[in-house]
Amino acid sequence: MSDKSLEDVICCIEKDKELKEYFGRDKPLSSGILDDLGVLMEEKNGKILVKVRLQDKASDDFKIAAFNKLLKYIEEIDALNIPRPVKGYVVKKLEAIATVKIGRD
Fold this sequence. Notes:
Elements: H1 6-15, H2 17-20, H3 31-41, H4 46-57, H5 61-79, H6 84-92, H7 94-99
Helix pairs in contact: 3-4, 3-6, 4-5
């Protein structure tokens, strides 16, 4: 069980400059990959399925580094006491969380 809340995890993602480097054209993390992983996260044992999918997609050191960074956040999301569909949605939206700035109250 995680001591972090969903908001805590989202704040960490927003501040992670290294993670931001892995998003974009010709980068390892795309919205398509995140959508696939989000769907897998909605399943029972989703984190295991995500890990297997990332291992299948890894082809070079840069992708491995990106996927390891992504997996760190997926593990934090998976540890949250929230419904599986919400976990999947957050994974699908990781790029927007990491790259789009919207003010906080």
